Amino acid sequence: MTDDLRIAIDLEAAEPPFEQVRAQLAGLIATGRLLPGDRLPTVRALAADLGLAANTVARAFKELEGAGLVETRRRAGTVVASGEHTADVAVMALAAKFAAAARDAGLDAAAAVDIVRAALRAPS
């Protein structure tokens, strides 16, 4: 699970482990690697993967929730929050995926832009 999230803890660093977890998850959200609605691992699972105490990971999640980056839902667990802070990042991540798919399909930039324009004009 942490391989997908690419979280690494340096126990020798001056920064406490909970802050390392918080900062790395916030970075994944900010760069669009984690999108609104994406589910985070459970506190216990992430703690076990990272070799940390559950309370350490819980503190990181609490800090992220306080910043409005994640939401904890009873049955759904902790998910990336939606909101203005993530809208641009989410669209940019989708645009990057589209650009890669367009290149893979052999489309040039003009054809890809034409597809986007047509999609924007289409009714929702």
Automatic annotation (TrEMBL):
Ranges for domain HTH gntR-type: 15-83
Pfam families: GntR
UniProtKB keywords: DNA-binding, Transcription, Transcription regulation
InterPro entries: Tscrpt_reg_HTH_GntR (IPR000524), WH-like_DNA-bd_sf (IPR036388), WH_DNA-bd_sf (IPR036390)
Source species, domain of life: Bacteria
Spans through the membrane: none
Name of this protein: GntR family transcriptional regulator
